Each structure stands twice: as structure tokens, then as C-alpha cells.
Amino acid sequence: MTYIELKVAPRREERLGTCIEFGGTVGEVHRQFCGGCLKNRNRSFSQGTICQLLPATAILTSLQDSVVIVHGAVGCGGAVHSQGASVRLGQFNSGDKNPKGALWLSTNLNESDVVSGGEEKLKRAIVEADKRYRPAAIIVLSTCVPGIIGDDIDGVADLLREQVAAAILPIHCEGFKTKIMATAYDAIFHSFLRYMVDGKDETEFAVYNNEAAVTAEKIRRSRLVNLLNVSSMTGPDQKELTRLLNKLGLEVNMLPCDAHPNAFQIAPFAALSVGVCPTHDDYFMTYLNEKFGVPFVGGQMPIGIENTSIWLRQIAEKLGLEDTAERIIQSETEELHRALQPLLPELKGKTAMLSAGEIRTLATAVLLQELGMDILAVRPYHYDEFGGTEIGKLEKVNPKIRINVATAQPFEAVNLIYRNKPDIYIGHNSDNVWAAKCGVSILPIYGTNSIYSGYAGAYDVARRICRHLKNTAFNEHLAKSVRQPYKESWYAEDPFKYIKGVE
Amino acid sequence: MPNNRFIERPRSFCSLGGALLTVTALPGVIPILHTAMGCGGSIYWNQYGSTGYLGAGYCGGLAVPSSNIQEKDIIFGGSDRLEEQVRTTIELIDGEVFMILTGCTADIIGDDIQAVVRQYRNEGINIFGAETGGFHGNGYKGHDIVMTVLTGEFIETKKEKNKNKINLLGIVPGQDAFWRGNLLKTRALLEKLGLEVNSFFTEHDTLENIRNAGDAALTVVVSDFYAHQTAKTLQEVHQIPYIVNPFPIGPTATEAFLKKIAEALDIAPQTVNEVIAAETQQYFRYVERVADAYNDLDWQRYAVVVGDANYAPAITKFLADDFGWLPELMVVTDDIDDEDKPKINAVVTSLTSHYPVTIAYESDPTEIKTHFWKVVPRKTDSLYQNTFSPGFVVGSHLEREFATDIGAGHLTVSYPVVNRIVLNRGYAGYDGSLSLIEDLLSVIAAQR
Question: Do residue A352 and residue A464 come from a single domain?
Fold first, then answer.
């Protein structure tokens, strides 16, 4: 992967052929993708959605001891007002009883900056941020305005690197540059790999003052794994995955979310990198492997019972821990299945529709199939080669499951819901309300300080779906009294009517 | 917080956000964003967290029609994409009026949205356009930009004026999380003077009423700082004069407000005095029965008030002039030019209680602490110290950590309102100040 020499990580459209416009069945989507026929198209009607900046601020404001500077107009970054709730929760969970929340600045670009450039303002912001907050890292996010007027954020960072104590990490996440918001994950890792992960080994610099300490550190590292968490993971999710890895005898270096920047510096010395979602982590793990020889396992999200077992087996295989893993899997799944027994009759045959990031949506659908539910449709935010693993599992149970590749676009969702009338919609924050207005019960697909991952997550998802189905009054009444903004004729139309030709 | 430097955790939307929240608050008006794909989501996530969990509504949130222009549109121009998006929006979305709102990208590349507006107006579509790219300013500015377009272009001009009819401005949807309650309460109060009120954003307002607002005799702006361009437009285009009054909270401020309106509209002093007497009596009906606890439990507090140009002076005045609290410091968080500061300050330099309040203009939470420690002595180990205790911080969610640090009570009123749910609550007028009393004292009572 030679991308790292470039200033900017490539777009997912180019790197992975990722696409965000499709309507059909799960069988079709994968065949078309593999056959090279799944191309990016356009929508002649589209709705406001998420750009790179949103996942970037979600991840980066969670980092400890860091300041995020959003270089743009004053509204870019405003999402942090709601994302900050998770950041505060993270800080609270790590023991801060009066958490400060997300620390971020806006360079507040105005009309005169658009004319004369925003670099000076950015420089002042970096210098002042270093002085005022004394952070370990200053993260600069570029938005549409500097992207168009041509501010050189990398140049500004280079210029100031000697002047400020903090590490400066310029990150390109201009909203107009890519249709695939997941490009943000590459953009973030790109910058951290260029400016934070240097591979300098502290044991060689006499930080450890004796041979025994160096040996002890070496032994620790032989069991240290990088766990690539994602911003949609909650504290309880992280705890569950850490619990399972600890059972394998491994120590976890968790990053990027909620991590201290130091976690990136130790990453090259881990025995293994463990992914939880290929949408998020392939860029980082691949590079760490190429540059520093850290092996990795990726491609399997530990959501779903069998999925969690596969995830554990893949990790164990790399480290020669197969027997231990099998023992863990056996005892864990036995206990889980016993716990699930009383819930399964309530879930049998219940229908669901899901919507969120690619892997999250598909893996959660696989879990629901394990629980005996019928999947009517899945709405991944994008589709690329990583989707194939889970699509294959879904297809095996029912090749007719509908798939609608769309980053939100609730007009398509609502049309599908009217046709299919699922018992429950399991969707992304802010997608859900449109299904709720159709009278459908909702389980948010991530967050709310709940657990979704691992074996404990499988149980909790089952338990929570049962809870939602126990009383559906709120959304049923809502549907009777509020309107969707679409004309009645829309519900008789093809839900994918506005997806038009290849770019 | 001069415009030429960064802002820590900004306390506003961008102008596009303010405009979008304004449009989604209007009856029957459908926004069409001509922006990059993330603007709609970014604003929605912002409003979700900052305006008391204000949801998407009829056609906001991630349902907002948006051209989602890409790099190729930035290079070759985005007008064709906008034209297509407008066509499909009219085809798919059930709305009466359409309002195109541009983002930074479209404004910088200079797409001619008015050409698209003209094209569809010629086809008989009720469509308008406003240039609201975020770099033009904050959410208050965006509100003013889009309301200027609405009042200038949508409202029909009428020569004959109705002397009992007014337009109400100055409460900004979204920037003020309590906008619905504040509008309803202000409107109800003005109706008691026998006035017909066009307040644009309440359930009592309709598109038809707004279209016919050109015969109002007066525009009342309940803000020293917001929506003034809209008021000027109503004056210039529709010959409707306007008066500006500080946002009124509590009996003292509201009495002065009502007298000012009565004078401007030539309402008989007897009428206004009767309203004031009845409202005051009503206010004390309730206050009488919290007076026991206020006095028995010693609920007087030192206070710091942090808020926008509406809330900071209004709450400071209520606390000092009606509620008997001690507002040591008022921090106004808007970016206000020096020449405009005296009119904002006037509210607290002319308090009927003459309470001496230190005034600061600052937005960064970190710097607000610095202002506080200039006014208040730090705690020492001494047994005998006269400090800011018992204390209370009325501000935004951003002040919670600070309030906790200094052991003070805290109530979120001003943007961002993250830790409260707001439906129809409002703080304006006599009635609103009762809600404010409930909320302030509930913070203290919750510890019992």
C-alpha cells in the first residue's frame, strides 16, 4: 500500500470500488459487485446525509488529551454537540466524575477568509490551542471551504511542527470530495500513520532502565493486540471484546476511539492487530503489517453468535491459541444458548429491516437470523468487497432479502417499509424516526450505552427486541397522527425510481 | 470573540443551519438544500444535540431534499444538479412553498440559484432562494437572511394597514431551544392587548396568514440583536415600521414591554394597565405559594448568567429585578461589535434593583472561567470567607462542568441545550418566568 506517501488518502470509490446506490436482492448485489457491474450511480432525488466530517469528529473528539480544530465555517463540527454525549460518557466510564466533554475549536471561516484564505487563522488557532490546552495532539480537520479555496493544511502543520509542543495531525475530510463517508476512516488513519506511528521503540532508548524490565516488556508485547474499535461501539461493547481477548490471555491496546495518542505509538510493537469492522480498519492494519510486520485479522465483525466465534478463532489461529479458543467458545455459547431459550419463542418469525454502515447492518442481520427472525430488507450505507462475507450468510438463509444501498435516504426506506411492514426496524441514529413514523418499532443499531458485540451483545439485542415488541403504542399512535413528507403516489412507485445511470 | 479568530465549541449553527431550522419551522415550506452531501446531516446532528432534542419534523433531518453536490459539480458548476433536484422534489414532496438554501460550496462557486428560481416560478411554483452558505455567519444571521427573503418576496404588499395587527420577530427557531414556548407566550400576551399577531412559527400561524401579513401596522422585534434586517425589510418593502424591545422575562421587563407596545400602537393606557394588573396578579398567585420555601430554605443565590444576546440580559434582569438573586457576572456569548454593545448592556445598566453586574463578552467556555475568577475571589482554607456561595450558573450545557467544579447549581437555557428536553416550555413574559422559577428552584430541590 503505497498511499502513505500521498498527502491525502485515496477515495473509497477508487481504492475499493465502493458504491452507494443500489436496489435489488442480496443475491444480486454480490454477484454484480464481483462481476464488476456494481458501479456508482446517481440519484436524481436525494436527501441530505452524512459526509466524511461526521465520522471524523465522532472518532477524533473521543481521543484523550487532544484538541480537534475544525477548519471551516462555524457550522462544520456542530454535530459534536450531540456526539459529545458519547465522549462524556466515555470519560465518565473511565473515572472522570465531572467530564469535560469533547474539546474542539472552529476556525470560523467568514466571508473575508473565503477571499483571502484561512491559513493565517488556522496557524493562530494551532498556536493558541497548544498554549491554552497543552494537549498531546492537535488534530486539524479540513472541510469544504478550505478544500475549495486551497488552504494548505499540511503546509501549515509542517511549518508549526517545530513551534508547538503537541503533535499536529492534518486530516482531509472535505465533504464534497467523496460520496463514501467511510473514506473518513482512511483519512484519519492516513494522518496518524504519517505523523504519529513512527515505530520508535522506547525500550531501545533506555526508557526501561534494566534488562529485566526490557525482557518483561517483550513478554508483554508478545501478548499485546491492537484492538481497532469503532465510534459506534459503546463502553460495554469494548468491555465485552476485551473480556473475550483477556480470556485468550491477551492484553488489549485499544484504538482509535477513546484512546490516548500513545496507543498509536505502541501499535507497531503489538503481536497482532485485531479488526472489528473492515469498513473501519483495513487501511490501518494493512499498513501496520507492511511497514512494521504486525500481522492482522480483519473482515469479521464480532456481532452475532457464530460471527463472534469466527472472530475468536481467527485471532487464536494467528497466535497458536486454537485449543484455548475452542474451550472458550464452547463454554460461552453453551451458557448463551441456555440464556436465550426463553426469548427465542417471542422472536421466532418476527420480521426486521436494518439500516446503518455496511458491515454493521449485515452482521446484525446475520445475528437476527440466528435468533430465528426473518430479514425483509437490509439498507447498508455503502457496498464494497467487504460486504461479501455477511451477504453470503444472509443469502444462504434467504436469497430474496431485499437490499437497498443508500447512505440514509429515508424516502427509499419509507417506501420499502410500506411494502414490507416489518415488526422492527433496526437503524442508524436519525434514520430511525422515519420508520417510527410508519408505526414500526425501533431498536437503535448502535449506541445508547448498550451492548451489541460478542456473546453478551447477542443476548442483549435479543432481550431488547423482545422488550420493544412488548409495547408498540408510542410509534403506532405517532403513525396515525403525523405525516411523511411524500405524496401518496410515492408508495406505489418503484422505491429505486430515482437511482439513475452510471456516472 | 472577534470574528478573526477561532471559537471554542461554538454556540451557534452556521447561517445555513439557522436558515434550515427557520424554514422547517414555517408552515408548509419545504427546504431544498443546494449543498455538499454532509450539510443536512451535520445540521441535524447539531440540532439534535443542541436544541433540546428538537427532531426532524415534517421534512427536515435526513429527509431534507438536498442536491448533495460533488467535486465534479464544484468544478463544472452545480446549477444543473440543482435544477434536477428541484424538479424531483416538486414531483415527490408534498409542500406548498419551496425554499432553496445554499451552502458554502455553492456560494463559493457562484451557482446562479435565482435562475433556477425564475425557471420554476414561470411554471407557477411557489419557490424562493436564499444564499446562506455557512461562511456568511452564524445561525442567527441565517435566520435573518431567509426571513428577509420570505418577508421581502413572499408577503404580499398591502397599502391599507390594520392598526390592530402586528408581526412578531426576534425569537430564532433552534438557536433558541425554547422558541416554540417563547413565541406562544409572547403571542398570547400581545393578543391580550387586542392584537392580531403574525408570529410565523407557531401552530396558530398559517402560510395564508403569513402571505397576508403585509397589512400589519407594526413589527415588534423582541430582541436587541436578532432579525433586525428582516424588520428593516418589512419597513422598506411593506412600509411597516418596527420597534425593538429587549427579550422580556418576568414582570418588571414585561410591564415595560407592554407599555412600549401600547404607546407605539396608541392603545389606551387603561387597556394596557388592566392587562398588566391581571398578569401581575396571576404571577403572584403562584409566586405567593413558593415564597414559603424560598424564604424558609434560603433559596437566594449568587448567579452567573451566560447566554446569547436575548437570554443573557433578560435572565440577568429577571434574577436581579424580580427574583431577588445576585447576578455578579453576565456573559454575552454573541460576537457583537463594540458600537452595538451599549444597547445590549442597557438592560443591566438600568436595572430597577440597581444591582451591580459585571458584563463580559465571551464565547469560549475556557475563557468564561477566567472572567468569573476576575469577579469572584477564589476559595481559601480560611474559616471566614465571603465567596460565591451559594452559587448558581444559568447558561448553556457548556457551563455544566464549570458549575459542578465551583459547587454551584446549573440550569441550561441558552444554546447548546444538550441535557434538557424541550417541547412547549418557554420563559418569555409573566407566564414564562413562572416556568423559569420552577426550573431554577427544581435544580436546588432535586438535591433534597
Answer: yes
pLDDT tens digit sequence for A419-470: 999 999 999 999 999 999 999 999 999 988 899 999 999 999 999 999 999 9
- Domains contained in chain A, number: 3
Contact B61 A433 (CB under 8 A): yes
Distance (Å, rounded) from C-alpha B334 to C-alpha B42?
22
A149 interfaces chain B, CB cutoff of 8 Å:
yes
Per-residue cell: A472: 408498540
DSSP state of A485: S
Cβ distance of A82 and B71 shorter than 8 Å: no
Helix and strand numbers (H, E) in chain B are 18, 13
Compare all CA atoms of chain B with the CA of A486 and give the residue at the minimum distance.
Answer: B93
Place of cell 406562544: B184
Residues A486 and A373 in one domain: yes
- Amino acid A207: pLDDT: 62
B318 is in which domain, residue-wise? 289-445
Cβ A284 vs Cβ A298: under 8 Å: no
pTM: 0.97
Decide: helix, strand or coil at residue B70.
coil
Query: In chain B, what is the straight-line distance between the N-terminal and C-terminal CA atoms, in Å?
Result: 39
Q: Beta-strand (E) ranges in A309-431? A: 351-356, 374-380, 402-405, 424-427
Q: The CATH number of the domain where A414 resides is what?
A: 3.40.50.1980
Residues B249 and B201 in one domain: yes
A43 within a domain of the structure (yes/no) = no
The count of domains in chain B is: 3
Q: How many Cα atoms occupy the beta-carbon half-sphere of A352 within 13 Å?
A: 34
Q: Chain B interface, mutation test: which of A44, A81, A116, A123, most B Cβ atoms within 10 Å? A: A81
Cross-chain Cβ contact B85/A44 below 8 Å? yes
Both B308 and B438 in a single domain? Answer: yes
Nearest to A110 among B71, B85, B135 (CB): B135
- Does B219 contact chain A (CB < 8 Å)? no
